[in-house]
Structures are given as structure tokens and as C-alpha cells.
């Protein structure tokens, strides 16, 4: 299927051509040279070799002597490179060609044409490295990137802005799903709507042999020449071609300025590789067709434009001259795919493609691993996908090797009756496929989401953790609950039941959307908050909240910020977000983090950026490890995504949070947490022993402001660095010591308790030195000391809560009884009861809590997990020492929201009314009974 380029065809005359000799006589006409002739014939009439060498020499020199010559410095120009660029322009229908150090360098040179404020439209099935570079220019250059499904030209229309759209980045077929993009139609459509936009095409998958996008309206084409153009995986190179002189001038300027032009020796190697491009591709492509048909016949889901049922076949045939040598296929099961990949011998496990040797890879764990799992899922990239890049080996050897790997992995077996290999039906794979369909159906139906996340206590390391010291913290059994209920009236509303029953609604369209730089699924939020959006929200959406209501202001700002920045494809889902908590707000138990986690999860769910996998049916259980009877159903990647965004909300509420609170609220349990960015090992590590401690938490009821306290310690550190640094070092030693003691199975319980108690005392003293204690906290310490118990402040201090260690030997059983029952006369002689009574008498509010329980929970959205008829549960018992009741909303009827709910499509009545109407005491039990909760 060798394409022919007629260099003399009207309107197509490339500047760099290899003219076909004039016919000797009209009777013996000459046909224009075909592609493989052009490839093999390196000839530049303007650069004749002085000795007539048949191969282009390597001018391995950095400088050239003399003044005024054609070459002076190899960064700006080198004869070997000139030969190469002339040759590439010739085979690409291009007037100009440039060669640089890699494919990514080629993209970088192109992206440097952008300036702040420009908008770029790019595909959503991109190579991980392209995605990474685009994210960089979004965050560092201020360019907006819209990721869209480019397989349908109409999807681009809403994103084309006549003045702002500066570039459209396309690739066809896409990698690794081999989706076809109509380069010709999109180029034409974009030019009509935004005449100045530059159409850029990544042509690596096809090479100029199979596709020349400049002929279809593209302005710039780039290739990773490391792939097919070189063909031997022995060099890295990038190629950029174009026809427009203005663009060529800019590209040449950048390449010369940054100095990333291809070296002479690599230019030589690439030139040599190109000579065999057509020959290699013909062989590779023919074998690929065989492999694709083989896998297709076995019943795998195969992605290759050469297959009759490929959806883009027609478009592809119009714009390309062949189907290429990359295909991908799905097995339905990631583990099975891993086995197949590991089982091949001839196919090398490697990233990249285009080499004469065949390669096999799993994009999700290799070439596309830099795109995070949630985005991969959102972009429909199957985790089990295997990519095959076919080389020039004997096709039979390749097929035999692949077949062996499929047999060894258990993917195919010999059907004796038919005497041929057939695919093994995999129940887990089938269940997963069915699950995918159900999830898509569930996504279409807008539903209510009920979320909860725990508060925390920090036992060691608060404040110090902000400055890179390890903190030891655990979840508590007091939680924040968030409920997102869809609305049909285009409004977004927030109801903060613990913040004076605050309620407000906004018309979604009137929010300051022009101030948003949307963040594509999977992209990172920039380190700094987007202050343009913060200011716009404060001025246009939150101006009515007075200074006296900081709590509502912070909570609304965090919620709206996430809602707007996470919005995608201009969907603007309308819903009500109601939040309420069994945690005391602002008392140092991480109410802000648990609220942030609920708000972030709600936005991620309604914007469909995270999914909940349906627990598998019992028949497929044996294939998949399920812990906690399926309660642990929220995938780690989903939890990490929530944690990232909850941290953004925490930044809004806290200024400079360490991240420990939101991490505990998402992951639950007990953990040692070290903030990244301080040049030492960071991250989280679970701590088992912590669970077995009993604590009494006492709220001093003195209000304080975490943001101010954290900033205060920061200011002290700047003023008295020696003092504060020595305190930070001492706290690090305390945390290390505590970690060692908690992990030591040999340490007798009594010694452990006294060690923890001594370390708590010490840590408290350091917090006093940092200036974050308060007379009320010292008074709680004195009261508990009278009972020989150790107490330290927990959280930000300045008021808030203190934590008291309760030795288990003496009062474990009683502790349990006390947690279950309201304090009554039965226990009044008991020491713990006495302590509680004294604290209450002094005006404090004690809580008995257990630590180390579940993190983020989401009520299962699947009907089989919902309990019917338990909506109007009456309170059965009063809960010990709950925060005060929240009054029913005034001047607002919850039915306004419920009326907008899509009653006919959901078999369950909305949770909204019982959620806002139940008392805070009955909330946890009610929530627990309405269905199955899925946890991290
Ligand atoms: N249940 C809730 N509803 C709404 N906002 C909340 C809730 N809990 C916490 N917040 C937000 O978090 C702030 C409290 O943060 P902070 O002072 O750090 O307290 P904590 O120590 O409990 O985390 C509140 O002012 C409010 O903005
Ligand atoms: C003081 C600090 O260490 C913990 C804050 O706890 P709280 O806001 O008091 O719950 C701050 C942080 O880690 O971000």
C-alpha cells in the first residue's frame, strides 16, 4: 500500500523535492518517484558532497571556522542535520522541517508559541508525557487546556473561542486506544471558527509514510522520530514540520535559543533509519493485521483500524494510507493481562514503539502511568489493556510466542472437539464488563450521595507537622455527614446545619465562571490556591456574609471553589449540599478536615470524577481479594483523589495546613504522617497499636482560630528560629519514640502506657513554649492530674480540646459501659465518672470516644444495598454527651429541594428530609441503618 507523492501535482509542489527525470521521449513517460524511492534516496541538490560520498558524512563539530560561511555553530546549524531536515521535509510534503532531541522536545518547541491567557484544545486519550507537559504549561504559563473527545469533531465546537483558541492538538490514531480523529474535518472547522488557531498533529503512530497531516490542513506536524522514523531504538529524536514561513521562523528561533537541536551523530543515525522506513512499515503493518485478526477471532476486544468493525475505519481510510503497526486489546482482567505480558519471550516488555523488534506493554502501568488512575478511568482507558507494537520478525514466530503466553496465562485453552484454541470465559472478566455497563447506567441517573468522614485526634506533633515534623494521629468516632441532593431548578445550595443553620442558594450560571481555570480530570491542583477565583467568589458570590460569620464564609468558599474548579465539560450540575456533624466545630478535633472531605467527595461524585465500584457478585469473589466483607470498597486511588481535593479545601479554611487532618479523615485508622517538601521521607504509615488506647476528650469550649494559631507559630519561627527549631526537633524525637514504642510487641502494656503518658506530657510542654496553650486547657490538665491522669492539648490549641489518656487496666470495662450509657448514679462513685462530673462542673464538655475507626464512607448507591422502610426511625437511646441539637431550619422549607428531586426515576425517597430533620443524636444510627456504607 505504498503511497505515491507527486511532487509536481498542482498546489502540492513541496519546496524540498526529488524531481523525477524528464522523460526521454513521449513514448516512454516516467512516473513520479514513489514514497520508498524518496525515502531511500538522500539527495540535496544544494549540498553536493565535495568527494561524492554516497552516505551523508557526520560533521561532528561544534564550531565552523571563518566568517560569513553558511555554518558557524552546531546549535544553530550543522550540515548533517541540514541533510536530514531536507530529507524529512521531502517525505512529509513540507516546506520546512526541524529536528530536535526528542519527541517531547518537539512538542515543547511548539508549545512555546503560546502565551498566558491562550486556550488549547487537546484530546483526552493522550500519551502520559504529553499530558504532563500540558499540565505544566497550564500551571506555569497560565494557558487553559480543554481536554475533549476529539473523535467527534462536534465535541470541539463549544470550546472553540474565535480569539482565545490558540492551538488545537490532535493525534490519529490515538495512543493506545487507536481511536480515529478526523484531522481534515477538524482542521477545516477550527479554521472557520478561529482563523488564528494553529492545528498541531502528533503523527508518531503513523509516520509520514502512512499519513501526512499537512496535506489535510494541519499547520504543524510533529513526530517522535525515536519511533518509526529511526526504527531501531538506538536514538532519541523529534521532528517538527510545517509549510508556513511565519511558523517556521518562530520554531527556528526557539530551537536556536534553547539549544535542543539534534546532534550530528543522531542526525546521521536518523537519516540512515529513514531510508528503510517504507520497507519496515510494510512488513510491520502486514504482521499487525495478522495479529489483530488472530486475537479478534479468539474473542478479545481488539483496537486496530484494520479490523472491519473498527468505528473509525472510514475516516481513517480517507486521511491515511495504512493502519500502522500498533494494536491494543482487552482481556477483561488486569491480572490476566499481567500474566500474558510476563509470559511472552519474543515480544519485549518495553515502553515506546516503532522499533524493528516487537514490543508488548500495559499502558496503565507503563507509558500512561503518569496519568493518575482516576483520570485514566474517566478517559476510558482500561486497566487491563495490552498494547502490541509489531516488529519485523517472522510473523509465525511472533504469533506462536503470543499464543504460548495466552495458553500459559490461562486466557485460551484447546477445544478438543474443534481442535483449536478458544478463549476461556472468565467469570470475573464478565462480571467486570457487566459492572462497567451498570456503572455507566448509574452515572446517567443523577442521584443523591450520602457521605461521611471522621474527625481526628493528634496525639503527638500538632503544629510541628506543619513544619515537616512527623505527627501521630487517629480517627475518632465522631463524624461529619454530607448529603448532596440533585436539584432540577439550576440552583446550587448549601445548608450548614452546625453553623447557625446557614442556608444559601446560587443560580449556577451566575457564579463567576470567567474566573475559573478548570482542571482536567487527573490534573494536579497548583501548589497555590487560585486567588483570582477566591477573589471573584468573595466579591460576586459571598459578599453578603459578614465578617462575624467567618465559619460560614470559609465553608461556603471551600465548597464553591471545589464545585467550580472541578466542573467539567460545562455540565454545571445543580444540587443541594447539606452538612452536619457530631463533632464539635472548631474544637481541635478536625471538624474542618472532615467537612472538607465531605465537600470534596460530593463535588467529585456529582462531577463524575470518581466512581464507586459495585462489589462483585459472589460467583466472582474467588478472583478478587475482598476485605471487610466488601466494606472496604473505595479504591485507594479514589481515596487519594479525594484527599488531594480535601487538602485544597483545608487550604481555604486553614491557610497553611499540614495535610494530616484530611489524611486521617480519608484513610481512617491511626497513622504517622510527615508532610512532603522538607527534604526527608514523607507520607503516611499506619500504626496498629494506637487502636487499643482509651481517651477522654475534653472541649474547653474556648473558641479559637486554627488559621491564626498556625500562622502565629510560623511567625514565631521566623522571629526566634533557634528556639522554635529546637522545639521542632524535640517533637520529632517524641513522635519517633512513640512510634517505636507502639510498634514494639515485646513492650509490656504497662510500660507502653507510661511511655505514652510521659511523651504526652513532654509534647504538651513544647506546645506551651510555642505559645498555643490556653488557661482553660491548663485548668483541664490540673483537674485530670488530680486523678493522676495525663493530659495534653490536641489540635491547634488556643482553646479547643484536650486529650486525656485513660489507663485501660483499671477502668476498661467501665469505660465501655460509660460510652454506651448516659452517666447516671450507678457510676457516680467511680473515679472516671468523678472526673467527668468535675469537668462538666467546670463548664467543659468531655467526650468518650474510640479511635482508629473507618475513614471516608459513602452510602452505597446500588439498590440492592439500600434498606427500605427505615426512613423515619425514632431515636432509641440518648447518646452520651452529644453536641447541642441543631434547630430545624427557619424561613426555608427542605421540600423546596426535595420537590425538585427526580422522584419517578429513583425507587427510593430522597434522604434529604430525614437527614435535615433527624436529631444529631440519632443521626449516626439512622445513617447506619439506611443501607450499606462503602469505606476506604
Ligand atoms: N460541620 C461543619 N459544617 C460547616 N463547616 C464546618 C463544619 N465543621 C467545620 N467547618 C468549617 O471548619 C472551620 C473550623 O475549622 P477549625 O478551626 O480548624 O476547627 P477544627 O479544629 O475542628 O478542624 C469552621 O469555621 C467551618 O468553616
Ligand atoms: C495545628 C495543626 O497541626 C492541626 C490542626 O488541627 P485543628 O484545626 O485544631 O483540628 C495544623 C495542621 O496540621 O494543619
Task: Summarize, please.
With 936 residues, the chain is an alpha+beta fold. It has 29 helices and 27 strands.
How would you characterize the overall build of this protein?
- With 936 residues, this protein is of the alpha+beta class.
- It folds into three domains: 242 residues, Aspartate Aminotransferase, domain 2 (3-Layer(aba) Sandwich); 165 residues, Aspartate Aminotransferase, domain 1 (Alpha-Beta Complex), CATH 3.90.1150.10; 366 residues, Ribosomal Protein S5, domain 2.
- Helices cover 37% and strands 15% of the residues.
- The chain contains 29 helices and 27 strands.
- The strands form five sheets. Strands 15, 16, 17, 18, 19, 20, 21, 26 and 27 form a nine-stranded mixed sheet that branches. Strands 1-7-6-5-4-2-3 form a seven-stranded mixed sheet, sandwiched between helices. Strands 8-9-12-11-10 form a five-stranded mixed sheet, with helices on one face.
- The longest helix has 23 residues.
- The chain is elongated.
- 48% of the residues are buried.
- The N terminus is likely disordered.
- The site of (3R)-3-hydroxy-3-methyl-5-(phosphonooxy)pentanoic acid has 19 residues, from helix 20 and helix 21.
Determine the CATH topology of the largest domain: Ribosomal Protein S5, domain 2
- Biggest sheet layout: 9 strands, mixed
Helix content: 25-40%
* Structural category: alpha+beta
Q: What is the multimeric organization of the chains shown?
A: single chain
CATH class of the largest domain: Alpha Beta
From the 3D coordinates, which CATH architecture of the largest domain would you assign? 2-Layer Sandwich
Task: Estimate the strand proportion.
Answer: 15-25%
* DSSP E strands, number: 27
Computed CA radius of gyration, to the nearest angstrom: 33 Å
Bound molecules: adenosine-5'-diphosphate, (3R)-3-hydroxy-3-methyl-5-(phosphonooxy)pentanoic acid
Q: Give the rounded overall mean pLDDT.
A: 86
The total number of structural domains is 3
Measured between the Cα atoms of the first and last residue, the distance is 54 Å
Overall spatial form: elongated
